[in-house]
Amino acid sequence: MTRCRRWLTTAALALAGCAGPFPQSTLHPRSDYGRAIDHLFTDIFWWAVVVFVIVETLLLIALIRFRHREGRPAPKPLHGHTALEIGWTLAPAVILVLVAVPTVRTIFATAGDAPPDALKVEVIGHQWWWEYKYPSLGIVTANEMHVPVGKPVQVSITSADVIHSFWAPALGGKRDATPGHITRIAFRADSVGNYSGQCAEFCGQSHANMRLRVLVDAEAAFETWVKTEQAGPAAPAPASPAEAGKAVYSRSACLACHTIKGISPGVIGPDLTHFGSRTTIAAGVFPNDSADLARWIADAPALKPGSLMPRMQPPLSDAEIAALVAYLQSLK
Amino acid sequence: MSDAKGLKSWLTTTDHKRIGLLYFWTAFVFFLIGGLEALVIRAQLAQPNGHVVSAETFNQLFTMHGTTMVFLALMPLSAAFFNYIIPLQIGARDVAFPRLNAFSYWVFLLGGLLLNASWLVGPLFHAGVLNVAPDGGWFGYANLTERQFSPGPNIDFWQLGLQILGISSLAAGFNFIVTILNLRAPGMTMMRLPVFTWMTLVTQFIIITAFPVITVALVFLMFDRLFGTHFYLASAGGTPILWQHLFWLFGHPEVYILILPAMGVVSEVLPTFARKPLFGYPVVVYSGVLIGLMGWGVWSHHMFAVGLGPIADSAFAATSMLIAIPTGVKIFNWIGTLWGGDIRGTTALHFAVGFVAMFIIGGLSGVSHASPPADLQQTDTYYVVAHFHYVLFGGTVLGLFAGIYYWWPKMTGRLLNEPLGKWHFWLQFVGMNLAFFPMHFIGLLGMPRRVYTYSSELGLGTLNLVSTVGAFLIAVSILVFLLNAWRSARYGQVAPNDPWGGATLEWSIPSPPPVYNFSVIPTVTSRLPRWKTEHHEPMRDPPATPPAPIHLPAGSWWPLVAACGLPVMALSVLTRTLWLVFLGAAILLFAIYRWAYEPVEV
Question: Cystine design at A255: which of A264, B120, B395, B400 (Cβ 3.0–4.6 Å)?
Fold first, then answer.
């Protein structure tokens, strides 16, 4: 199993001529769900290698051994061979049974049912960002999901508009986010880390820009994150740039779409109550730094084609944008 | 072919050979267009954060690349061979319904032009050029294709184009079923049919059963978009998953529509150049029929990520794995055909063997996503793109090129150059493996498909660059083929009746065949009529001139006129102009009426 992964990765590295890392690889599972899939794929992979080698070798032998040579007598007009036909019908059938049995076992083992005490997270796909709700904790956030290491997590997935697909490869397989339906995955992450993923179902113009992160935290760090998220937004210090930014926010179009608890109730865009604590913006596409955030606020569709967050009309002044950036980043 | 020259003789032709050539060159032009679209896609993805085209253009490119290759290039390239070769292989003078055959071609041409016109006509819809081509993927998943999320004419071009092309395929499907069942020469029993003809028959049955399904799906979509019905709208009690079931209920049989004809070609080419009968003829035929039937029971393996539940997933995993058995059996029989043969390495044989070698890879990666849990890491990634390009490029395209090199002398009367042909093969073989093999890794390492850009953090720049180089190498190989075709037309060696020593009837008549095909309809006494076997002496070829005059029907304008009614009706939907639909229907009905009463004797 590990050998196969190493083999595959090494081959990829050799081809790539670089040393990775491949943060979105499906071959480095970091959860029980991911590992179950990896075991199964490894089995299938090796069966495929065996069949590939046998069949291609037979083909090559036939081509070399029976190539045309002058003076060779005309081939015998052989029409078939019943025993051979039965043999090469049964051989793949046996291999397929050996693949099918673990497949069905894994299907049921990974059907998406976590124990009842699992942490529940609701994922809602939007064009082109992810909304996460933790109903038992009263938390709503976007694009960066936090889960505790070693604890079962039950994720239920749906969509607010078109079909998306939630996929964080290190933690396991994807499931579609379909409007009107709920799909589920369950996993128990086994190591702390920041795992990237992205939408896997074509969902319109900026499908490629609908990325996500799953941050697997140590238990204490997760508790701290929960406490922070449950609290209201940080209040900016008096006379700080952030306070000026709050004033800009409160008089501009932002509040029609975004929620900041106690300040604005918009539900079209991501919740910004703790925006400053996120590491990325625009659904995982840019780092959450002042320069990118300023460009994003000024003209989101230029950075993310089709973005529903329009270009600010009338445009905000540079000073206003700087103030907004300071405010948003203060919302830890 | 008929000696008549000039545009009129082509516009009114009902000769299956001319229609075959029209299909071939039209489909080949669409193949080039689809290939150019692929090159732009690969240029964009050669490096992370590429800026060759915009997101909007990229989405149109991959949609049109898939739609074009499936409906406008590979299916009609197969149809070119159905048209040209099937009547010759079964010893007939033409297809059963020659005018319907012409109608199929014109509908295909006009449907293809309508789809591709969308690249250029943006200004008519108050948009730019390169703005209104279809952009919902070749699979057009609802509800993204609904008016709320795709308000422009893009999706209308797509659904109307596909509806029109479906009419072409259905008409041709019925035509070839009747032709193969009813116009066989005396003694040509079903179990003496050449395997290409058999696989064509199976393909036509799949076409006439699968195309109604997508037509229904497309009509639902059109009604949703035009009249505000809500078949696919969850918000109004419908479900977008209905589209997926209907689309893949068509879409998976469609895969076999694309691969079975190529399997038929390979089953003709390998025996000819191994100088050995096809190994296990009945098994190859039955496995083809079985693939055609089983192709109907596997559609939900395209939907494992939908969450249909563990029982449905297990059932569709089982059926999908089962279909690997008849496919594997075919591969073993092809190797059995080569085994013990006297293999002549012609270009056609190179391509046929290339088909077998590459199709194995596509088949094996296919088993890995027949397993639903594994598929959940693979579906909608480049791993799947790698898989189906090994099936459809390594399989269908190499198989069709085997057919092109094999039947070119029959169809044009001139040989292609063999050394150039081998350059073509090796460039294409290396190119496709460079282009598509790295995609397995690109997918497993986390890159989804249908993304116009990707982050450099994924570490996949180099692999993508290799893939792009491969794609351009394929383009070079196609240029070599075009050079070869041009050279053949200008300087090519004149082809005898039978340049290869083939066993089947098409090699018993001149290249290209006269308009009546057979001066005397042959009587068939063997599965390999032109070969000597233990119990059978080779047939005598028909005489060079017919002993009695042969009467053939004259051409007709009405298939072309009738076909023109369809795009007019489509225009009505595109421009939301009601009277156009009546005009289009009137053209269609009038032409069918005149067609029905056209004098038979001219």
Answer: A264
- Please name the member of A23, A163, A183 whose beta carbon is closest to the beta carbon of B141: A163
**CATH number attached to the domain at A119-230:** 2.60.40.420
Contact A167 B345 (CB under 8 A): no
Does residue A314 have a cis bond before it (omega within 30 degrees)?
yes
Q: Where are the domains of chain B?
A: 345-491
What are the structure tokens assigned to A201, written together?
């179902």
How many angstroms separate the CA atoms of B325 and A96, rounded? Answer: 9
Reference B451, options A75, A325, A128; nearest CA is A128
Match 């890491």 to its residue by tokens. Answer: B377
Q: Which amino acid is residue A23, in one-letter code?
A: P
pLDDT tens digits, residue range B293-319? 999 999 999 999 999 999 999 999 999
Strand partners for A164 = A177
Spacing of C-alpha B202 from chain mean position: 14
Residue B17 designated active-site: no
Could you say which of 1.10.287.90, 1.10.3210.10, 2.60.120.560, 3.40.718.10 is the CATH number of the domain covering A2-109? 1.10.287.90
Query: What pairs with residue A212 in β-bridges?
Result: A197
Q: What is the Cα–Cα distance from B375 to A41, expressed in whole angstroms?
A: 9
Enumerate the residues of chain A whose CB falls inside 8 A of the CB of residue B270. none
CATH code, A241-330: 2.60.40.420
> Residue length, chain B?
602
Q: Is B270 left (phi over 0), alpha (psi -120 to 50) or beta?
A: alpha
β-pair type (A286-287, A280-281): antiparallel
C-alpha span between A63 and A55 (Å, rounded): 12
pLDDT tens figures, A12-23: 555 544 446 899
Residue A133 half-sphere exposure toward CB, CA atoms < 13 A: 11
A76: DSSP letter: P
Active-site pick, B18, B42, B65, B414? B65
For B545: left if phi > 0, alpha if psi spans -120 to 50, otherwise beta; the answer is: beta
For B318, counting Cβ atoms within 10 Å of its Cβ (0-12 exposed, 13-18 middle, 19+ buried), the class is: middle
B282 and A80 in contact by Cβ < 8 A? Answer: yes
pTM score, two decimals? 0.96
Q: Kindly state the DSSP code that residue B74 receives in the 8-state scheme.
A: I
A119-126 and A152-159 beta bridge pairing: parallel
Dihedral sign for Cα atoms in the order B569, B570, B572, B578:
positive
Rounded to the nearest 10 degrees, how much is the dihedral formed by the CA atoms of A109, A112, A115, A119? 140
The answer to whether residue B3 is catalytic is: no
* ipTM for the complex shown: 0.94
Low-confidence ranges of chain A (pLDDT < 50): 1, 16-19
